[in-house]
Amino acid sequence: MANSEGILYIATGKKYINEAVTSARSLEEHMPDIPISIISNREPDSDIFDTVFTVDNPSYSFKDNVDYLRKSPYDKTIFLDSDTYVCRDISELFELLEQFDIAAAHDTGRRHKLYKDDNIEVRAPDSFPMYNSGVVIFSDNIEIDNLFDKWEDIYYRHTDKASGIVNQPSFREALYKTDVRIATLPPEYNCRLPYPTYLRGEVKIIHGRTSNFEAIEQILNEEPTESRRTFLNFSGRKNPHILRLDLDKWQYRQRSLFESLFNRGIKETAIGLIRWYKGDNFWES
């Protein structure tokens, strides 16, 4: 299909297939016409997917993502982990692929000792971020083919030599060592649970496990969504909430007044207030 666009899930095992069905239903609510495919070990108990690709020998782990992302049937793909929930239309993400080869959000992890052997190839510097591989937008082109080849190569050569989960550290290394143009998504497009998250604007994609996505979405997107806010949902917390960082106009002016008195003194503050009264913007100075 020329210039095709679509959504891809990779889910193996009943639990994760059911999660993908829930995610796809949330997607369909906002994008009813978008094609949705799933790569799985069996047919889901739902007709939500337009195309089902079955695999014979899945690993039932993150390795399946490394192996099968390249199997997307679309020219432009939005890949979503099974534990995502779509809150808004996300079709604009495809526009990123007019300028970039791939897009993903920063992960909550930073440095990760991927290898135990210090004599292995040069690693990405600490300043190069870890990208979360649960929401990934990518094109079907030679650069992405090279990226997936490199990711698979690093993952397979070092997965037995590293402790812990290595799909994202190996993804980070592959991004660093290839020529792909990567766009960085803001957290509103991959709002991770249960980590504290800074937000400004509507949350489009929630990523994590919860018994009530609708309630979390209501909390996240409570008006005004353009305010600066931090989502607090620590592990074990029964009542996640939003800490709003914006102050209203009079709170802001009161704070500015006290800061001016402390930093400039009474005389300079008085002069500033007179200037403001005459039309200058004292509160922004």
Structure description:
This protein has 285 residues and is of the alpha/beta class. The protein folds into three domains: 5-187, Spore Coat Polysaccharide Biosynthesis Protein SpsA, Chain A (Alpha-Beta Complex); 188-244, no CATH class; 249-284. It is built from six helices and 13 strands. It has helices spanning 14-30, 63-68, 142-158, 167-177, 213-220, 249-277, and strands spanning 5-11, 36-40, 51-54, 76-80, 84-86, 102-105, 135-139, 182-185, 191-192, 197-199, 205-207, 229-232, 241-244. A seven-stranded mixed sheet has the order 3-2-1-4-7-6-8. A three-stranded mixed sheet has the order 5-11-9. The chain has a three-stranded antiparallel sheet with strand order 10-12-13, with no helix packed on it. Helix 1 links the parallel strand 1 (5-11) and strand 2. Helix 3 packs across helix 4. It is elongated, with a radius of gyration of 23 Å. The model has no long low-confidence stretch (mean pLDDT 86).
Short description:
The protein is an alpha/beta fold. The chain has six helices and 13 strands.
| Global morphology | elongated
The side-by-side strand order for the widest beta sheet comes to 3-2-1-4-7-6-8
Tell me, rounded to a whole number, the average pLDDT.
86
- What fold name goes in the CATH topology slot of the largest domain? Spore Coat Polysaccharide Biosynthesis Protein SpsA, Chain A
